[in-house]
Structure formats: structure tokens, C-alpha cells
Amino acid sequence: MTLTLDDDGHLTDHTLWTPVVAQILADTLDVTLDEIHYRILGEVRAFFDKYHHSPATRPLIKHLSQTLPDDEINNAKLQALFNTGLVARHVNRIAGLPKPPNCL
């Protein structure tokens, strides 16, 4: 599968995202996606659909805490799940969304 990515490794067209695409993008972080990952990615995409932008770290964690309370999401858990300290950037990338505006 050939994906068209921008210079930062994000899909150029977020509507082409699928779970298979998510795993291809997650492979770059040595992450094997499972149910909790897909719940998180689904909520990140729902945030994007509602607010029309990718969430930065604080809004991302707040949104996930409210929408997935049983998963007890916090920054450390996201870092562990997605194998990165750049949580917002890489969670949005794996969710097929643009890089948040305030990320390096």
C-alpha cells in the first residue's frame, strides 16, 4: 500500500485512514495496535470531526479522560502505549490526522 504523507509523516488526506493504515503508521514507532489503541484513535478522530483541528496534548488527554473514563488515560499511559514522548504529534499521525499546530 502506498500512502501519501506530508513532510512530517502525516497523511495528506485524513479521509483515506483505515485501521490498516493506522498499523502501517504505528509500525514506524514499533507499536502493535490493539483494542485500547483503536479506542483512543477513534476518539482522536471524533475530536477532529467536532473541532476541525488535531488536539494538542492537554486537550487530547482531557478529551480522552472524558470519553474513555474506564481506560484511565494520562500522559504517561499514552507515552507507554504509543512508545513516544511526542504524544499528541504521534497519536494524531497514527489517527491519520494533521500535526497539531503547536507541535514541533
Provide an overview of this structure:
The protein has a single domain (14-94), classed as Arc Repressor Mutant, subunit A (Orthogonal Bundle). With 104 residues, the protein is mainly α. The longest helix is centred in the middle third of the chain and has 17 residues, at 35-51. The chain has helices spanning 19-27, 35-51, 57-67, 75-82, 87-94. It starts with 18 loop residues before the first helix and ends in a 10-residue tail after the last helix. The model has no long low-confidence stretch (mean pLDDT 93). Helix 2 (35-51) crosses helix 3 (57-67). The protein is built from 5 helices and no strands.
CATH top level class name:
Mainly Alpha
The average pLDDT value, as a whole number, equals 93
Please indicate the count of domains.
Answer: 1
CATH superfamily: DsrC protein, C-terminal domain
Number of strands: 0
Distance between the termini: 28 Å
Count every helix, treating DSSP H or I runs of 4 or more residues as helices.
Answer: 5
The radius of gyration computed from the alpha-carbon positions, rounded to a whole number of angstroms, is 12 Å
- CATH architectural label: Orthogonal Bundle
Helicity level, as a percent range? 40-55%
Q: Which class of secondary structure composition applies to the elements?
A: mainly alpha
Q: Stretches where pLDDT falls below 50 for ≥5 residues?
A: none
Which fold name fills CATH's third level, the topology?
Arc Repressor Mutant, subunit A
